[in-house]
Amino acid sequence: MNKVGIIGWPVTHSLSPAMHNAAFAALGLNDWSYELAPIPPDIVGKGLRTLRDEGGFIGVNVTVPLKEKVIPYVKADERARAIGAVNTIDFRDGSGTNTDVLGFMDDLRAYGIEVVGHRVIVLGAGGAARAAVYGLVRAGASVTVVNRTPQRAQVMLADLSLSAGLMNADVKTLDEAAEAGASLIVNCTSVGMWPNVQESPWIKGVPFPKNVVAYDMVYRPERTRFMEQVEQVGGRAVGGLGMLVRQGAAAFTIWTGLSAPVEVMFSAARNALSAR
Ligand code: ATR
After folding, report:
1. Residue among 156, 190, 206, 226 whose CB has most ligand 1 atoms within 8 A, to mutate
2. Which residue of 66, 104, 192, 223 has the smallest Cβ count within 10 Å?
């Protein structure tokens, strides 16, 4: 049996088992399975060794709160080190990478959302925002970060400048950023996530830039309050389920060496979500 899975604490809400097991079934990979593997944060090193040496795992995805904590135990690639978070490990060579960035950038591409030479507003300064800023600036966008705690955004950009040489990003308040304009706004905060579905990271009354596209990394609910706000002023809004699916697809390829059945993974994720 080729075992993979997801580590985190807790991991019970993950959509990844449904997504990956559907992909294995679709490709006839009957000797593969994807399992939940909860590991408490204070024993992450031991937990990883146990999965590898005794559990027979080939690799794992990593979710909160372990994405930063696993770094000392893997050979993290440049991207993961720059972002400060690993979400996919391959035990066969000990490597760790971050497929959240790939998932996000692939999903923008899939929706035909252009970023090269464009101005983008990133809302948030946590791990998800780090991945977004890294992917966007690397791709040639200029990024303005808005965060409830602006100091945290400044620290994030200083880190990314040191670790990856990223320069094309600054921090503004929401009204300054809206005034300066943008073609894309990405919500990387958890605001609006179920069950707080009436909340939005975009303060009511602040005008949206004209013809803006909103990308909400929140995928539960599939249509968020933030997405509704943008659509009400004639903008386009995209939810974050595609990013989740595509980060999973990238991990699937790392482990199996095969290209992932993205549509199969999409419907499995959607089904698992609606069963909640
Ligand atoms: P993740 O790693 O998933 O990005 P995180 O590190 O906890 O999670 O970051 C959450 C982000 O959502 C942060 O930008 C946080 O703002 P602060 O840095 O000011 O804490 C933002 N966030 C969470 N709840 C919020 C709220 N109620 N209003 C505004 N921003 C919020």
Report:
1. 190
2. 223
